[in-house]
Amino acid sequence: MKYTKRVFTFLLLFFVLLSGLSPLEASENADPSEWTFSTTSYVWFSGLNGTLGVKGHKARVNLSFSDVLSNMDASGMLTFQGHKGKQYFFFDGMYLDMSASEQVSPGLFTDVGATTTRLQAAWGVRIKEWESSSLHVFGGLRYWNLKNELTFRTASAPLRHFSDSESWIDPLVGVRFATQLSPNLTFLVILDAGGFGIGSDFTWGGMLDLSWKLSERTSLEIGYRYLHVDYERDGFVMDAYNDGIFIGFTWKVR
Would you put residue 15 in left (φ > 0), alpha (ψ -120 to 50) or beta? Predict the structure, then answer.
């Protein structure tokens, strides 16, 4: 299956590398006995690259980061997470509405629209801890709702329009590594993979996040996120990836 071997090899090497570090010897009594919760809202300046298909008709789309502001109709992400001792969970939602226009031949254009709603929930456990770092593994489910639109037109008039949508659920596994660079600065890496032919053929993604603590309850987030999905069924195709910079704000609820 495309991408599967490459991604899982990377995840395995990442785990082996971290396992070779000397763990911090800490007693279970050092773990917090109460749940702590936080919520983060993001704006994701995401590009879109790959192939979209509707009812057997396909089109390439190539929106780089420089094209984002002029082609993105709406974007937003919201995360709620909790920690207690070695336990960890999160709920995450994302909405992207993007459009682009490509010239496929002299006088013929293709307008492409892609609307993505993605919801995911996962539960994890800390398997390794160092003096200022921690490693979690997690598993969960990811829900997708995608709508693709293709319009073939001349410079002055539309010729044909196609629209379709699909929804499915993927299993999800991943790792989360966090390290505290200073009292007010934390670096976070998240890698995940899913689908495995159950929903999508394959999906995988990653996130790099630099968190700057503003107060005891608030922090500013800035980073980079990548998300790829490979899905094809009954003429509907989404074999593409989103990537780009995000900016967010975190509030510690408790």
Answer: alpha
In a domain, 26, yes or no: no
> What global pTM score does this model have?
0.82
Virtual torsion, Cα 148, 240, 174, 38, nearest 10 deg = -60
Q: Are 20 and 55 in contact (CB under 8 A)?
A: no
Q: What is the pLDDT of residues 194-252, one digit of tens each?
A: 999 999 999 999 999 999 999 999 999 999 999 999 999 999 999 999 898 999 999 99
Domain with residue 100: its CATH number is 2.40.128.100
Q: What is the 3-state secondary structure (H, E, C) of 61-86?
A: EEECHHHHHHHEEEEEEEEEEEEECC
- pLDDT, residue 23, reads 38
pLDDT at 7: 45
Tokens of 72: 């993105």
- Total tally of structural domains belonging to the chain: 1
Judge whether 152 lies within some domain. Answer: yes
**Distance (Å, rounded) from C-alpha 162 to C-alpha 141?**
30
- Give a yes or no: residue 112 inside a domain: yes
Tokens 């109460």, residue located: 34
Dihedral sign from CA coordinates of 211, 79, 172, 227: negative
- How far apart (Å, rounded) are the C-alpha atoms in residues 158 and 228? 30
Whole-number pLDDT of residue 68: 62
CA distance 86 to 110: 51
Domain range enclosing 15? 4-19+40-252
Residue 65 has pLDDT above 70, yes or no: no
The answer to whether the CB of 80 falls within 8 A of the CB of 90 is: yes
